[in-house]
Amino acid sequence: MNGAVCIYLAFLCIALLTGVVPARAAHIHQEKVYQAAWCAQAGGITEYLLDDGARVDCLTDEYAIEFDFGPKWAESIGQALYYGIRTGRKPGVVLILENEHPQFERRLLTVVTFYGISVWIVRSEESKQERRPFTVTLAIM
Q1: What is the pTM of this model?
Q2: Judging by DSSP bridges, how do beta strands 45-49 and 55-59 pair with one another?
Q3: Cα–Cα distance measured from residue 27 to residue 61, given in angstroms and rounded to the nearest whole number
């Protein structure tokens, strides 16, 4: 290896080890916190295990529901559809919005409206420094 490559690799290793490069964006609450609160209020089962090892975030009598944060809106649709097929329930998505741009909600609503997928929005508008409770809403959109 030439000297420039070695210096670059050394710098990269130091940056990763010291946390200069963030691994992922921090959330106000972890997904499982929203999932547990919402699913309990809906009377569902959290982390329902399918025979192929996949886990439905919340299984109710009527819905197989996937929870995801705003930027993962598209992924949530595919997972909800799969869970719905595997459980014989209607697919549903709970989109978690923590101070995110409204584009994620608009995009999700465009697709779910067209395909008839149920969606719920959980909002947490608090500052990331203050970990206050969020509001759980069970209205179907």
Answers
A1: 0.72
A2: antiparallel
A3: 30
pLDDT in tens, 86-117: 999 999 999 998 877 789 999 999 999 999 89
pLDDT tens string 38-89: 999 999 999 999 999 999 999 999 999 999 999 999 999 999 999 999 999 9
Distance (Å) of CA 136 to CA 22, 35, 83, 102, 120 = 30, 10, 22, 18, 9
Give residue for tokens 């909800």. Answer: 80
Alpha helices in the chain (DSSP H): 3-18, 31-42, 73-87, 103-115
Tell me phi and psi for residue 128, to 5 degrees.
-65, -20
**Residue 9: C-alpha distances to residues 18, 21, 52 (Å):** 14, 14, 40
Strands 55-59 and 118-123, sheet pairing: unpaired
The amino acid at 120: W
Q: Are 84 and 110 in contact (CB under 8 A)?
A: no
